[in-house]
Amino acid sequence: MTSAHDDLRALVRTIPDFPKSGIKFRDITTLLLDPAGFARTIDALATTVEGPVDLVAAVEARGFAIGGALAVKLGAGLLLIRKDGKLPGATIAEDYALEYGTDRLAMHVDACAPGAKVLIVDDLLATGGTALAAARLIRRAGGELVGARFVIDLPELGGSEALSDAGIGVASLMNFKGH
Description:
Protein name: Adenine phosphoribosyltransferase
Keywords: Cytoplasm, Glycosyltransferase, Purine salvage, Transferase
Largest sheet: 7 strands, mixed
Number of strands: 9
Shape: globular
Pathway: Purine metabolism; AMP biosynthesis via salvage pathway; AMP from adenine: step 1/1
Number of helices: 6
Structural class: alpha/beta
Distance between the termini: 19 Å
Pfam families: Pribosyltran
Subcellular location: Cytoplasm
Radius of gyration: 15 Å
């Protein structure tokens, strides 16, 4: 899909050595600032989704912008996946590894009804740790994963493979080499 979205790729800024030395951070905030580019991103992601979706599970923080817009486009609800301690009320949580550390994600215990068809959405796929933690949360709640969608994939870090190995269908709009 990469060549079909070169116009969107041009709107992504690369910030070297963030959050630590050696990392090339792919920043979609510049894409989000472009109304036409943002709209094309959501439209392109929507075309990758087959079948009904009850909930779009958006991962904090840039995933909220993408997930919220995609949920509206798909006629679905928005399920927030946040860092642990950020949601009020009863939650369930999962630990996960990042390409440069570890963290913990949470969601409300009542946010996903058993049998709900859920699509995970985030801005970027690296190692897949964040998306896999979100998938574990959704499955613990009884949700049925229908796939995962990303604006950017860093294929060298193996996230697409990890999600596929976990039985999760993955689609991204563009790939970037390096990390």
